[in-house]
Amino acid sequence: MPLSPLGKATFAARDYGVVQTHHSTKWELPVRILYVMTTGSADATKASMAFHLAVNGSAAIGDQPEIFIAGDGSELLIGDTVGSVIGVGVPAMTDLVALVREHRVPVHV
């Protein structure tokens, strides 16, 4: 591995999406991240967080988020429960679900 002028090892592994110099590492490939939602409508803010972080965080910067709904979170799939979930400091769940569809974020149950 060649040494930089400062004597530190450097390499460029472009096939893996990583460029490393003696200063920092920069990731060029999108990150895949799985958000797990296990909270139902009883705690609207916590129930909205997985969707909010997936679409307004990861998907917005070009990463590849996925959402996994388990436990009490599955109650949001019944009837119009999603319409009644409005957390504090996060968008309404109906808006978040629309963004999930727009960004084509996979949702697993």
Question: What would you note in describing this structure?
Answer:
- 24% of the residues lie in helices and 21% in strands.
- The protein contains 2 helices and 6 strands; from the N terminus they run ββββαβαβ.
- The strands form 2 sheets. A 3-stranded antiparallel sheet has the order 1-2-3, with no helix packed on it.
- Helix 1 packs parallel to helix 2.
- The radius of gyration is 19 Å and the shape is globular.
Give the low-pLDDT segments.
1-16
Q: Label the structural class.
A: alpha/beta
State the strand order across the main sheet.
Answer: 1-2-3
Count of separate DSSP helical elements: 2
Short characterization:
With 109 residues, this protein is an alpha/beta fold. It has helices at 44-58, 93-103; strands spanning 11-13, 18-20, 25-27, 32-37, 64-69, 107-108.
Which SSEs are present, and which pair or pack?
Elements (H helix, E strand, L loop, with lengths): L10 E3 L4 E3 L4 E3 L4 E6 L6 H15 L5 E6 L23 H11 L3 E2 L1
Parallel strand pairs: 4-5, 5-6
Antiparallel strand pairs: 1-2, 2-3
Helix pairs in contact: 1-2
Summary keywords:
single chain; 109 residues; three-stranded antiparallel β-sheet; three-stranded parallel β-sheet; 2 helices; 6 strands; 21% strand; disordered N terminus
